[in-house]
Amino acid sequence: MIDPHAPAPHSGVPRSRGEPGRAPLPVKPGTGRFLVLAGVFVCAACGLVYELELVALASYLMGDSVTQASVVLSVMVFAMGLGSLAAKRLRCRAAAGFGMLESLLALVGGCSAMALYAVFAWTGGWGGVWGDGPRYLLVGFSLAIGVLIGAEVPLLMVLIQRIRRQDPGGAVADLFAADYVGALVGGLAFPFVLLPLLGQLTGALLTGVVNAVAGGALVLGLFRRDLSRRGRWLLLVANVTVLAVLAAAWVLVDDFERAARHAMFGAQVRVAVQSEVQEVVLAGGERGRPLDLYLDGRLRVRGDDAARYRADLVDPALRGGPRARVLVIGGGDGIAAREVLRFGGVRRVDVVDTDPEVVRLARRDPGLSALNGRALSDPRVRVVTGDVFGLLRGGGSLGGPYDVVICDLPDPALTSSTKLYSQEFYGLVARVLGERGRVVVHGGSVSGRFWTVAETVRSAGFRVVSYRGRGGGAFVLGGWRAPSPGPVRPIRPDRAYAPSTLVHPRYGSG
């Protein structure tokens, strides 16, 4: 009778505990198997955190989250295949190879965020095919981390067979189960624990520490008898060195972030906080210096032209009809609300923003509250924070119907803003708009994307007028009736941007 758990002849599966040629393990086989699977779980969680860290930081630094995620994921998956092939040469020394592999992965993955941030802050663009230095580094780290992660499973397969021989299918199933559950935990820990509590750089460093400790403890604790005395000392020194580097980086990370922000945003950075939604940075705003507000590294408010931009956005909409009730979407900085309150007849202004931290700074920061004229403290203004889509769907949670809806939103070119320029979004706006209501939207510069925005507003049932502001921006004013925006400069699409070419199956245009 054939034992189903016996390895096939010449299968290359190492002998288990107690067999000639193998030093016995310091624990029982069941305990050893559990420890290996626990190591797989921890290493998988760390690997996914490195991956998400690169995606998040690249999106923050370079924009276009879809492109950055595609680059990181595709390169990393390709590199994992290369790593699996390369690990075949290490199977005869699986314990030593896995230990050194985890030390290197902890160092590379833990320091990747700081290195990418430093290159972006202090070198800017390098030119070339990718356009700048951070993209080269992003691809390099994705390759390196992918190769190291891909090399883990073949070595772990040898180690788990070292403990107790079993059929290869069962061993693979056990390893992948622990690997996938670990990836789930790492994927949830990054956005809900590491990022909000520690930030991107410190979170990556902590992950590297956990990775180094888990890998070193597994090999030096469970498989130390498979290593020579010299091999044990080399692995111990490697792990201690990696932990020392990560600890030193952890101590210096605050000074590093401060210096990097000054390099990116100027020497007048006063406030830098990581909210649950985004990083908020305020620069200037004191001693006559204009205030700049950055959200996730992108300039959102420039003090010396903020009033002009908001006037271009607000004034034409409020001059065209009734304005007793006004809804400002995305105006947590309070500047659009200040412009609205300049008009007579305004009885109520509801401001909806996703980030409570921006609202808090708009009320309490001396520079930003001076710029918005302390509009958010006006008794006619009510501020609501939360998901814009959910609040619009609720309808009653706001104060509609509104005479004017002002969409003071990020640039439509940003992938994260796409849903706020969709047909579904304008359909929800239509539900809270009164009979003679108007809606105004910032559409960026005059280009194909701008006419996409105009056509999407029209597809929600509005009659629209496109106009150019005094500051050079382009805006779309829509209403149930033909809107009368007053003395503005209407603009019409060139033939290259004919509306018929801009229809999108989901968003109404695109």
Automatic annotation (TrEMBL):
The chain crosses the membrane at residues 34-60, 66-87, 99-124, 136-160, 172-195, 201-221, 233-253. It is an enzyme of class 2 (transferase). SUPFAM superfamilies: MFS general substrate transporter, S-adenosyl-L-methionine-dependent methyltransferases. This is Polyamine aminopropyltransferase. The gene is speE. Pfam families: Spermine_synth. The active site is at 408 (proton acceptor). It catalyses: S-adenosyl 3-(methylsulfanyl)propylamine + putrescine = S-methyl-5'-thioadenosine + spermidine + H(+). Its EC number is 2.5.1.16. Pathway: Amine and polyamine biosynthesis; spermidine biosynthesis; spermidine from putrescine: step 1/1. Gene3D superfamilies: Vaccinia Virus protein VP39. Spermidine binds at residue 333. Residues 248-488 form the PABS domain. GO terms for cellular component: plasma membrane.
